[in-house]
Amino acid sequence: MALIVQKYGGSSVADADRIRNVARRIAATADAGNQVVVVVSAMGKTTDGLIELAGQINESPREREMDLLLSTGEVVSSALVTMALHAMGRPAIGLTGWQAGIRTDSLHRRARILDIDTSRITEELQQGNIVIVAGFQGMTEENDITTLGRGASDTTAVAMAGALHAEQCHIYTDVAGVYTTDPRIEPNARKLTEISYDEMLELASLGAKVMHNRSVELGAIFNVPILVASSFSDEPGTLIHGGAQMEVRNKVRAIATDTNVAKITVLGVPDRPGIAAQVFAPLAEAGLSVDVIVQNASVESATDLTFTVAKTDLQKAIALVRPVAKEIGARDCVASDQLAKVSIVGTGIQNAPGYAARMFETLYRSGINIEMITTSEIAITCVVAADHVQKAVQALHAAFELDKPEA
Amino acid sequence: MALIVQKYGGSSVADADRIRNVARRIAATADAGNQVVVVVSAMGKTTDGLIELAGQINESPREREMDLLLSTGEVVSSALVTMALHAMGRPAIGLTGWQAGIRTDSLHRRARILDIDTSRITEELQQGNIVIVAGFQGMTEENDITTLGRGASDTTAVAMAGALHAEQCHIYTDVAGVYTTDPRIEPNARKLTEISYDEMLELASLGAKVMHNRSVELGAIFNVPILVASSFSDEPGTLIHGGAQMEVRNKVRAIATDTNVAKITVLGVPDRPGIAAQVFAPLAEAGLSVDVIVQNASVESATDLTFTVAKTDLQKAIALVRPVAKEIGARDCVASDQLAKVSIVGTGIQNAPGYAARMFETLYRSGINIEMITTSEIAITCVVAADHVQKAVQALHAAFELDKPEA
After folding, report:
1. What is the DSSP letter of A405?
2. pLDDT at A377
């Protein structure tokens, strides 16, 4: 008998009909001879509604009470999905996050799971119950309720699958799986049947919002295969796993984009040791992530230092960098936010010859200027003008034959 | 420094404006130098909405999951009221029922409080916090969430006041206090400044729905003075207490009515011992309450046995009584549901001369036929035709001078 953990997102449980649909899928999984633990999100826009209500009462509500408030949404879903299973004659029990044994630190609204005490769930499974757990929440050592951050029901599910040594974790959502690129940008985008944890992490960090990175990281740590699929169809979805055959594939798997990109250039930086550290230290202290960093070749002992930050952080970043630039004797400091990142993603492509060259040539032939380049183990990223993103994705999707079925 | 427990009902926290209003009242109580623990109900019609949603999914949902579902409504209120106090700069903390230490038995949807572990609340009060507790809920020994029955936030508040040895318990609701009778029936009805626990119990059991009986009983057990008042005005309200001066007052305090009344008469019952027990045993087994019981004088060794049940239970009751009537050789079994109870209530009136006589005479002068009579320590009740209720109440209200201010 296999143990399967399933997670259903907010749109999958948005009303009574959809809850019944979800219950049918859960019952089918149980009827196939599996033990089933289900993690549910809040119904539809419930969480947004609660946040708005809180905002009417307090412009910056304390995070502890926000957690108390928001955690109720998932508890409602857990009760209703359980009732739907009862209506179908299936034994089931609904549990809050804390009843399910999820212990977290006390960083309210972004708590981390410290530990899962699986004794209650194990007992319920042994009694033949399907267990429906409220996602996104846990409890501190002081018995205070925490939430794990927006969309973190995925995290609950993967962590639960890890703690229970589940065979698979199914993440049911409103997309059918992981695509070679955003289908709204490239209609020829194709759904992948499988992808590695590392590739998925690159895709997520580069703006492909199928799953949160924390969930994928947890999947990798516990080696839990994660199936991402739609709860509205029976299409097969995409399996995220650490299978060995991927390690040697060396193939472009997908194209990711990120339009939340701005760049800052410090012009005429004196070329002496420690300068870069001086520029980036205040940004790190303020919690601002610096992404792509390029230092141009030195001309007469002065260089230009360029780096990207999230577009949403640009004003904060420039205010921090400008005084430092003055202090170190740089000539000027300029910014631009009409930018985007386009990346090709695939395990091992950095070390395989030809991918970078083909990427640059494809962009060149499409008349797209590359402003910056960065590489990682499994991705090559070019910063281009924001209005060139669609053209770049379509050209790369064709050049790397991503519309063709997998071998 | 006095400790005050306050309870705010659903209509008092129905929206953001009302929640702010409640927060102002709580803050004023704290500013007056009191420690304050507040018990809140779910916002407005939240509980009804959740019950309807559950009904769309399962016609008879399991009570355990109904409790899981319904308990969220009060948790939302507790978070929001706490946020409103924070917005006013007051230190406050929101707690669920189980966080507040409320332990119950496992009779879901009608659980009884077994014990309150006040350690968390006491600690929060010592730290200077106003404590906002989600009413209506608790937790079993097995860590399952229970609810205490409709309207039982009153019970939470009074039990909490008892456990904390609070000076007073304030029940804020949408009525201004306890009246001499229903103001919709008798416009001259007057608000009482005080009433005894026993009188209040009679009023509640006779259909005056200001507070639930369980809360008043608890108040009497713990000797917690309960102030019932409106959260929408600063009028003084009614204090329910056990003050000694009431014991000797011997005065009609109020007139209660109950229109949920039906009567069943078993005709020609053989006059031998044990017959009444045979008739009432199946009703007791089915959980149906029998109220007024009258056995007419015996005529030729057969009597008529008449009793009242709630009108809403009549069909169930008659189905149980008919076969028993046949079995014991009664002649027939008839029912009527066009009835109501009218009662005069006041400590000691049963033993004081003249009250019963004045009641019967007043009804007689108004042309109202009395179908049945019953008395208790503090009430005299007449069953009359339902369409005579208003006339009866107005006549009795005048006869016992209830429109005159208290001495």
Report:
1. P
2. 78
Q: Is the domain of A161 the same as that of A280?
A: no
Q: How far is CA A402 from the centre of its chain?
A: 22
Closest residue of chain B to A18, computed from CA coordinates? B57
Domains in chain A, number: 2
Residue A268 maps to which CATH number?
Answer: 3.30.2130.10
B127 interfaces chain A, CB cutoff of 8 Å: no
CB contact under 8 A, A69 and B84: no
Q: Is A26 on the interface with B (CB under 8 A)?
A: no
Whole-number CA gyration radius for chain B: 24
% helix / strand / coil in chain A, to the nearest 5? Answer: 35, 30, 35
DSSP code at position A13: G
Residues A31 and A123 in one domain: yes
Of B147, B174, B201, which residue sits at a domain end?
Answer: B174
Are A400 and A358 contacting, i.e. CB atoms less than 8 angstroms apart? yes
Eight-class DSSP state of B350:
T
Q: What is the mean pLDDT of chain A?
A: 90
Band (A247; pLDDT cuts 50, 70, 90): very low
Task: Evaluate whether residue B290 is within a structural domain.
Answer: yes
Last residue of a domain, one of A149, A174, A199: A174
Amino acid at A95: L
Determine whether the interchain pair A94/B143 forms a contact, defined as Cβ–Cβ distance below 8 Å.
no
Quick one: pLDDT at residue A229?
A: 94
Per-residue confidence (pLDDT) for residue B43, from 0 to 100:
96
Is residue B259 within 8 angstroms of chain A, CB to CB?
Answer: no
B122 with B265, same domain: the answer is: no
From chain A, pick out residues whose CB is under 8 angstroms from the CB of B75: 68-69, 71-72
Q: How many Å lie between the alpha carbon of A170 and the closest alpha carbon of chain B?
A: 24
B99 touches chain A (CB under 8 A): yes
Chain A residues with beta carbon closer than 8 angstroms to that of B59: 87
* Domain match, A131 and A278 both: no
B270-281 mean pLDDT: 82
pLDDT band at A305 (very low <50, low <70, confident <90, very high): confident
Convert the pLDDT of each residue in B208-245 to its tens digit. 677 888 899 999 999 999 999 998 888 889 999 987 55
> Does residue A127 sit at the B interface (CB-CB below 8 Å)?
no
Task: With respect to residue B287, please indicate whether it lies within any of the assigned structural domains.
Answer: yes
B15 pLDDT exceeds 50?
A: yes
Nearest CA in chain B to A77: B69
Model confidence band, residue A189 (pLDDT cutoffs 50, 70, 90): very high
Give residue B384's identity as a one-letter amino acid code.
Answer: V
Q: Is A57 on the interface with B (CB under 8 A)?
A: yes
Q: Quote the pTM value.
A: 0.83
A20 and A151, same structural domain?
A: yes
- The pair of structure tokens assigned to A74 is 């998932």
What's the domain range around A299? 255-399
Residue B361: CA atoms inside 13 Å, Cβ hemisphere, count?
8
Read off the amino acid at residue B334. V
Q: Does some domain include residue A167?
A: yes
- Phi-psi group of A382: left, alpha or beta (phi > 0 → left; psi -120 to 50 → alpha; rest → beta): beta
- Give the pLDDT confidence score for residue B207 in this predicted structure: 64
- B88 close contact with A: CB closer than 8 A: no
A7: closest CA of chain B, how far (Å): 19
State how far Cα B302 lies from the chain centre.
Answer: 39
Average pLDDT on B123-138 reads 97
The reply to whether residue B76 touches residue A86, judged by beta carbons under 8 angstroms, is no
Of B19, B58, B143, the CB nearest to A83: B58
Answer whether B87 sits within 8 Å of A59, measured CB to CB.
yes
Q: Which residue of A has its CA nearest to B21?
A: A57
Q: In this structure, are A260 and A169 located in the same domain?
A: no
Same domain for B150 and B289: no
Q: What is the mean pLDDT of residues A219-242?
A: 92
**CATH number of domain containing A15:** 3.40.1160.10
Chain A residue numbers with beta carbons less than 8 Å from the beta carbon of B93 are 64-65
> Which of B212, B182, B178 has its CA nearest to residue B195?
B178
With a pLDDT cut of 70, the percent of chain A lying above it is 95
Q: Does the distance separating the beta carbons of A58 and B87 come in below 8 Å?
A: yes
Number of Cβ atoms within 10 Å of the Cβ of A339: 22
